[in-house]
Amino acid sequence: MPPFPERVFSGVQPTGNLHLGNYLGAIKKFVALQQTHECLYCVVDMHAITVPLPPADLKHNIREVTAAFIAAGIDPQKHIVFNQSQVAEHAELAWVFNCVARMGWLNRMTQFKDKAGKNSENVSVGLFAYPALMAADILVYRATHVPVGEDQKQHLELSRDIAQKFNNDFAASIAANGHGDAFFPLPEPLIQGPATRVMSLRDGSKKMSKSDASDYSRLNLSDDADAIAQKIRKAKTDPEPLPSEVAGLAGRPEADNLVGIYAALKGETKERVLAQFGGQNFSGFKAALVDVAVATLDPIGTEMKRLMRDPGHLEGVLNQGAARARAIAAPVMSAVKDILGFVR
Ligand code: TRP
């Protein structure tokens, strides 16, 4: 396989309620990778319509994710920030990948099974084919590294399987078209440690989620300082003081979660946090957590709100990003057409 130049791609769905889990699990990592890689960060609006979403909400959410990217520190001049539906090559390559991926592969996707539940006869075909579109998102840029949360690992493996099968099935044509022995790289997930798996503030056994009925379960990126403080003060705990060692967090999901959030926000280990707070009760620890959460989230939220007041500017960013993304994707898609034998 030729050495593919390193390139980062990731996507966030504009489905509303961006929260601390999205920040610590994804966006914070996106920001850091700008220092070392060429990055494309995509608002994956075509993935968002795999489940029903009112158009006015979709439009608002696309702007909001864009604003969150910028407010968190992604530089849309140096890197590429855009929305998926503006670059038609995503959908074009996704169709090709629908014809490469096997039914059996997609049938094994746990996220589809979770989302479809008992309703699997009545969900959209798009929800089933979602991972093939995700593979196209990545591979239309021949991206090599993909920062994602733990829950996307299986989808990333499927992307690798699709890339590998395309490379194998069309090996002769890939070589004949001058692309050597592989056309697509096998993209690697960049998955952060368990410390950044952010759980609900109301129930330490459930993930922090945009769709939880209780807004007190999550810290939204748009929350102001007062809301952040209130939610942390009301966060569920247990009656014991904090342990001095990480082993003491076992069986205490709420304590574990709050310590993990504090550690992630501070860029420290849980060990160090417990060395400081072990033996203390939650009220002092929560006060410290409020300080660090407000210090991180309030400036992001404030900047997001400022950006949201100027949708024209955000759309300008997306339009310019899409033009730059297209410049990379179009030649890749043309090459794919030649490899497949399409006449163009
Ligand atoms: N499926 C991802 C999620 O829900 C979003 C996504 C779509 C994505 N396309 C992608 C992530 C490509 C990384 C790369 O979080």
Write the layout of secondary structure elements.
Blueprint: E1 7-12, H1 20-33, E2 38-43, H2 45-48, H3 55-72, E3 80-83, H4 89-98, H5 103-107, H6 110-116, H7 125-139, E4 145-148, H8 153-169, H9 171-176, E5 188-191, H10 225-234, H11 253-266, H12 270-277, H13 282-308, H14 311-340
Parallel strand pairs: 1-2, 2-3, 4-5
Helix pairs in contact: 3-13, 4-7, 4-14, 7-8, 10-13, 11-12, 11-13
Bound molecules: tryptophan.
Which ligands appear in the coordinates? tryptophan
Q: Which CATH first-tier class of the largest domain would you pick?
A: Alpha Beta
Percentage of residues in helical conformation = 40-55%
Helix count equals 14
Which fold does the CATH topology of the largest domain refer to? Rossmann fold
Number of domains: 2
Which runs of at least 5 residues are low in confidence (pLDDT < 50)?
Answer: none
Shape: globular
Spatial gap, N to C terminus? 27 Å
Number of strands: 5
The portion of residues forming beta strands comes to 5-15%
In round numbers, the mean pLDDT is 96
Main pleated sheet: 3 strands, parallel
CATH hierarchy: architecture of the largest domain? 3-Layer(aba) Sandwich
The class by helix and strand makeup works out as: mainly alpha
State the order of secondary-structure elements, H for helix, E for strand. Answer: EHEHHEHHHHEHHEHHHHH
What is the radius of gyration?
Answer: 21 Å
Sheet with the most strands: spatial strand order: 1-2-3
CATH-level-4 superfamily name of the largest domain = HUPs
